[in-house]
Structures are given as structure tokens and as C-alpha cells.
Amino acid sequence: MRLAQHMAVASDRVRATAIEATEFPDLSRAYRVMAVPKIVINDRVQFEGALPESDFLAKVLEAASAVH
Amino acid sequence: MSILTERDRQAVRAELAKLGGPVKLVVFSQSLVAADLCRENEQLVREVAELSEQVSVEVLNPAIDRDRADAYGVDQVPAMVVEGARDYGIRFLGVPSGYEFSNLIDAMIVVSTGEPELSDTTKSSLTGLAGDVDIKVFSTPT
Fold first, then answer.
1. Fewer CB within 10 A of the terminal residue: chain B, N end or C end?
2. What is the number of domains present in chain B?
3. CA B43 to CA B58: how far, in whole Å?
4. Within the 67-86 window of chain B, which residues sit less than 8 Å (CB to CB) from chain A?
5. Would you call A23 an interface residue with chain B, using a CB distance cutoff of 8 Å?
6. What's the pLDDT tens digit per position in B62-100?
């Protein structure tokens, strides 16, 4: 969550939501959360585990540029 | 009974000394939906707010304060918006305990300064974003 929330402050385009998985089982099921942390960007790019900042940014840019 | 121990309070107070401006925690609670979790969330937030004069708390009920909930994009409880000089889009769904608690404190600090700790490369890449980016981070307390 740390990188996500700093990115949210850096850009008006970015929104970051921390979700406590066990308290929101429906959301966790919908996003197939099997391990944490699990990061889902624009409902289309997802990964598990912490990434270095440059790799996290690459995922954000991938999600932002994906065709709707 | 307090959620934060005296040791927690000392550590949080020291962290909140880094706040660069006012922080508002907008908490969404709805006792008919998740009474215990909402109560715990509110209590935790109030205990944190007691540790710095820069921190204020507002509690809203999404069933009553519908316009505010819609404006914040909040439709589940317990939820919280962490605002600094403005709403930067940072939300917490669920009680931010354990690992998420340190992220909450970190979020408060970064919204208070408006200065993200990111590399220049990351910042310039984000400035150039053409579309909206919604990042969801699922975690558990431990």
C-alpha cells in the first residue's frame, strides 16, 4: 500500500484503496485473492507480493495503457 | 479498553510529529451493516487522532450522508478517507490494524505534506498518465 498511496499523492489520476481481505470476503473472492498482499490495478493488471518501485510503476503504466 | 498500548501511542505520537499540515480522517460507519468492525474502526481512528492536534475525524453514515459517500466513492463499511489539503484518493476499507496500521500512519504523513517519497522517474511518469488508475491492495492484519 505504501507505494500506491504515494503514487496517489503524486498524481490526481491515481487512487489507492487498501482492503482488509478477511473483512471483505466478497471483494476478495471477486478478485481471487489467494495470497497477500495482492495488488489489482484497473481491474486488469494484478500481482502478488511487494515489488520494487520501478517494477510497480511498470505495472501501473501497463494498466493505464491497456486497451479498454 | 484502548486498542493502542502505551508503547504504540508513543511510537505513533513520534511519527505524527512529522505531519506537515492538517489531516482529516473521514470515517464511514453503518452499525446495521458491520457494527463491531465499524465501532473498532472508529475507536482506532479516534485514538490516533488524540495523538496529534493536526488530526481531525469526521464520521459519516453512507446510508444517511449519501451525497458525501457518493462524492468520495465509498459504498462499503468500515471505510476511511485520508485527506490532507485535499482528497488525494487514498481509502482504507476495513480496520487498518497490523501491517495496514503503519500504512495508515504513512498515508497521513504523505497527505499532510503533499510530497510523495518517490523517485523523479516515477513522479514524471505519473504526471504523464493519460487515464485514471485505480490501485487496490488486498492485505491481512498479520
1. N
2. 1
3. 12
4. 73, 76, 78, 82, 84
5. yes
6. 999 999 999 999 999 999 999 999 999 999 999 999 889
- CATH code of the region A2-65: 3.40.30.10
Q: Indicate the domain borders of chain A.
A: 2-65
Prior bond of B22 cis (ω within 30°)? no
As a whole number of angstroms, the distance between CA A9 and CA A6 comes to 5
Q: Which domain holds residue B60?
A: 6-127
User: Does residue B108 lie within any of the structural domains?
Assistant: yes
CATH number at residue B18: 3.40.30.10
Q: Does residue B88 sit at the A interface (CB-CB below 8 Å)?
A: yes
| Amino acid present at A12 | D
Helix (H) or strand (E) holding B113: helix B99-113
Mind listing the pLDDT tens digit for each residue in A4-33?
999 999 999 999 999 999 999 999 999 999
Contact A38 B137 (CB under 8 A): yes
Mutate one of A3, A13, A34 to test the B interface: name it (highest B CB count within 10 A).
A13
Domain contains B135 = no
Residue B103 near residue B135, CB atoms below 8 Å: no
Residue B74 contacts residue A17 (beta carbons within 8 Å) = no
